[in-house]
Amino acid sequence: MSMFKIFDVAGSGMAAQSLRLNTTASNLANANSVASSPDKAYRAREPLFAAMHADAMAGGGDGGNASDAAVGVQVTGITTSQAAIPSHYEPGNPMADAQGYVYGSNVNPIDELVNMISASRSYQNDVEVMQSAKQLMLKTLDLGK
Amino acid sequence: MSHPTDPLFGIHARALDVWQRRAEAIAGNLANADTPDYKARDVDFRKVLAQAGAQDAPLQLAAPSPGQIGGAGDTTNGNIPLEWRVPMQPSMDGNTVDTQAEQAAYAANSVHYQATLTFITAQIQMLRTAITGGSSS
């Protein structure tokens, strides 16, 4: 019964999107963090998605016939933004360096909000797919009644 | 699952396989809606149906290894070919998933799947009537 693969696929999508939501939360929380040097400043994080084919997924193909229909998502890594780190002149700040500068994060809150909406919509899609698949499977169990 | 023309359920047992496979493909598309360079896939029902009909044709070209160009192809054991979807609005990251279109296709596919289930149920009930001679079991 390869209908179970839909659960794997939608599940991998949900895992990936919730990780994306996690990075978004982390970025937004650190939008106003400051550091005493550009190296230590917080950089925006973003997950890297890649398609994961059936043979790499748990369960494998059915009957030796490797089905390439079930394509899940995997997170291959988390990248940090290479955008410039802004510096502010705040001599009174305890984190300020010798010249009186503090270094903020390069998080763009607008980008993050857009990311958040996109991730939550995609997550909802995956949930719907899973629910429909579940209903179809239950109906199949009732076959002939 | 079964021969294209199953003696008991006709083409429906086979159709159930196809709808299921299509649901899988579309679930994959929706899961990868945000994956860069992912290309959406789908099952062409008409083509699979034609192949299932041509199953009894004599002397088909054999395609022993996957990816080899063969004849109509053997679709008996879950080997349902996938096609690439033609994007309506290509995106900059190379992804060809149109979420709304996929949602619509998934919903339509669910209805088709349930229709096939209904056909099979009707067939079972018909057989049951024949077996019991019309007296309700």
Structural write-up:
- The complex is a heterodimer of chains A (145) and B (137).
- In chain A, 41% of the residues lie in helices and 16% in strands.
- In chain A, 28% of the residues are buried.
- In chain A, strands 1-2 form a two-stranded antiparallel ribbon. Chain A has a two-stranded antiparallel sheet with strand order 3-4.
- Chain A is of the alpha+beta class.
- Chain B has 137 residues and is an all-alpha fold.
- Chain B has one domain (12-132).
- Chain B has 3 helices and 2 strands.
- Chain B has helices at residues 12-31, 45-53, 99-132, and strands at residues 41-42, 83-84.
- Chain B has a two-stranded antiparallel ribbon with strand order 1-2.
- In chain B, helix 1 (12-31) runs antiparallel to helix 3.
- Chain B starts with 11 loop residues before the first helix and ends in a 5-residue tail after the last helix.
- Mean pLDDT of chain B is 81; it is low at 72-77.
- Chains A and B meet through helix 1, strand 1 and helix 2 of A and helix 1 and helix 3 of B.
Instruction: Give me the secondary-structure category of chain A.
Output: alpha+beta
Q: In oligomeric terms, what are we looking at?
A: heterodimer
Number of helices of chain A: 2
| Count of spatially separate domains of chain B | 1
Secondary-structure-based class of chain B equals mainly alpha
- Strand arrangement across the biggest beta sheet of chain B: 1-2
Helix content of chain B: 40-55%
Instruction: Give the helices and strands of chain B as they follow along the chain.
Output: HEHEH
Tell me the total number of β-strands of chain A.
4
* Main beta sheet of chain A: 2 strands, antiparallel
Number of domains of chain A: 1
Q: What's the arrangement of strands in the largest beta sheet of chain A?
A: 1-2
Shape of chain B from CA axes?
Answer: elongated
Provide the gyration radius of chain A in Å: 22 Å
Give helix % range of chain A. 40-55%
* Element order of chain A: H for helix, E for strand: HEEEEH
Q: What amount of the residues of chain B lies in strands?
A: under 5%
Distance between the termini of chain A: 20 Å
